[in-house]
Write a structure and sequence with these properties.
Strand content: 15-25%
CATH architecture of the largest domain: 3-Layer(aba) Sandwich
CATH topology of the largest domain: Aminopeptidase
Number of domains: 2
Number of strands: 19
Largest sheet: 8 strands, mixed
Shape: elongated
CATH class of the largest domain: Alpha Beta
CATH superfamily of the largest domain: Zn peptidases
Helix content: 25-40%
Distance between the termini: 66 Å
Oligomer: single chain
Radius of gyration: 26 Å
């Protein structure tokens, strides 16, 4: 047994020596890390950034005047920090902008009560108060249209299932435990595929299919003469534990940003408790009166959109780029605090820290705050295509070779606990070394797995190293994500200070590292260049 084990000892020793060598070779500027930590915790401005992006300039729906004001404020801040470049960079057509300036919903009979909710994006106003007979019309597919043909004219239509408001027996906020982080850091080994295994059918409709049904549904409601639509803002009624209720409304859009698609009648979302009350009264045939008023505006002058770009020019390798950022746009029920003014404030603070410390960096540092993320990563996708190449054909541009990495923050206001490696194991020793000075702040975990749903994916799609940090989720999924509770007060200041220090340090070390970060091979093209649609 011992003899057999000794047989493999030289290989194990060589492996350990190689790992140690890699870690030893990864240079850490601990003096600069100390300065970054001091600036981030003792002179922080991150909550000041958050205040302006939320209380002053929130919400920030793409195409809305408030988003442009937030972007212009950000450019001014970058210039004040001393950015070598700060501007709005257009990325092309987005569609109509939309905003609302008034909302009122009230139960008049059988007893008066204010109703908690908000209008959904890209729906028109009511042209004054609307009060009419209510009808509950549960329409989930086009097959349901026939059941309600001729029954909706001049009515207020409830179209959602009542939401089962479950008793909450667990806290809505959660931080990663040590055991959960250990599990997260463990690689998922795929099971061997059987030769006769067939893929499971995907019954979930995609974004395009959902949008097509939404447009057809809106057209049907207008054809039938419905005055107003009311939906439950509680998410899926089949999974009540996913969202915290208690007066919270989770909702986004009911209309389309495209001028040639129907926006339907005015549509509002109510908290599930209030929606359920209306549904129960209707089910019991109790005389019921509701009054709703919405003032909304379509902004056809904002068909194009933009990203916010700021730079700190590098020195010896100024032609190479390290990027950081998050998405500036939000939904409109709250002020977009945790999604994603928090991530933008951290990126701004990291940028400010590096400028305040006057550190010398070889590579150019470029901050990017994206728009159109909520509609499908539109701003970052357009930026990658314009600057680096086409992910469909994998035809790259010269800037592709000069890019080092992109660091993204967009999972709420929780502190950083580590990094998702996006299946790039070459970076394990690098990020391990970079995290070590922050282990006493809870940042220790490296997860080889991918994480999805935000703008680093636009870079990964073209084989560029893009990363999202692992964050404590806090109340992100249960209370604030796309809800009327996404407000300044739900953001944790100390967590953002910690995240600012780590992001600034990661950016600094990426910008001063002798080599660019290693990258995986280019993904397989989706289409050949000659097959690509115009």
């Amino acid at each position: 047994m011992i003899k057999a084990a000794m047989k493999y000892f030289p290989f194990a020793l060589a492996f350990l020596l190689n790992v140690s060598l890699l870690q030893a070779e990864e240079r850490m500027d601990l003096q600069t890390v100390h300065r970054i930590r001091t600036e981030a915790f003792e002179h922080s401005q991150v909550m000041e950034h958050l205040f302006h992006l939320t209380d002053v300039h929130g919400p920030r729906l793409t195409g809305s005047p408030s988003l442009r004001k937030a972007a212009e404020w950000t450019v001014d801040q970058l210039k004040e920090f001393g950015a070598s470049r700060a501007e709005l960079e257009s990325w092309g057509p987005f569609g109509r902008g939309w905003s609302f300036s008034r909302f009122r919903a009230e139960l008049i009979e059988p007893e008066y009560a204010p109703l908690i909710g908000f209008p959904l994006a890209w729906t028109p106003g009511t042209d004054g108060p609307v009060g009419a007979e209510l009808i509950h019309a549960l329409i989930e597919t086009e097959k349901d249209f026939e059941k309600y043909t001729g029954k909706l004219r001049d009515k207020i239509v409830l179209t959602s299932k009542p939401h089962n408001v479950a008793l909450e027996t667990e806290a809505p906020a959660h931080r990663w435990t040590d055991s959960e982080l250990e599990t997260l850091s463990t690689a998922i080994v795929p099971s061997p595929k059987d030769f006769f295994e067939f893929p499971e059918p995907d019954n979930e409709p995609g974004r395009e299919e959902r949008n097509r049904f939404r447009t057809r549904f809106n057209e049907f409601l207008l054809e039938e003469g419905a005055l107003l639509r009311i939906v439950s803002g509680g998410g899926s009624p089949d999974s009540p534990s996913h969202r915290s209720q208690n007066g919270t409304v989770f909702a986004t859009s009911a209309g389309s940003r495209k001028k040639d698609e129907s926006s339907g009648p005015p549509t509002i979302a109510l908290t599930p408790e209030h929606y359920n009350r209306l549904a129960r009264l209707l089910a019991k045939s109790i005389p019921l009166k509701v009054e709703v008023e919405v003032e909304a505006t379509f902004h056809d002058e904002t068909l194009d959109s933009f990203n916010v770009i700021g730079e700190i020019e590098g020195h010896s390798k100024r032609g190479e780029v390290v990027m950081l950022g998050g998405h500036l746009d939000s939904w409109h029920g709250g002020t977009g605090a945790t999604d994603n003014a928090a991530g933008c404030s951290v990126a701004l603070e990291a940028f400010r820290i590096l400028k305040a410390l006057k550190v010398r960096m070889d590579r150019t540092v470029r901050l990017a705050l994206w728009t159109g993320e909520e509609q499908g990563l539109l701003g970052s996708k357009a930026y990658v295509k314009e600057h680096f190449g086409d992910p469909d054909t994998m035809q790259t541009k010269p800037e592709h070779a000069t890019f080092s990495t992109y660091f993204n923050l967009d999972n709420g206001s929780g502190k950083i606990r580590g990094v998702y490696l996006q299946q790039n194991d070459m970076l394990r020793p690098v990020f391990r070394a970079w995290l070590e000075p922050f282990s006493d702040l809870g940042a220790t975990t490296l997860a080889i797995r991918n994480t999805t749903g935000t703008d680093h994916l636009s870079f990964n799609a073209l084989g560029l190293p893009g990363f999202q940090f692992i964050q404590d989720r806090l109340e992100y999924s249960t209370r604030t994500h796309h809800s009327n509770m996404d407000l300044y007060d739900r953001v944790q200041a100390k967590d953002l200070m910690q995240a600012s220090a780590i992001m600034a340090s990661f950016v600094y070390h990426a910008a001063t590292r002798p080599e660019k970060l290693p990258r995986k091979p280019l993904p397989i093209p989706k289409t050949k260049p000659e097959e690509k649609e115009e």
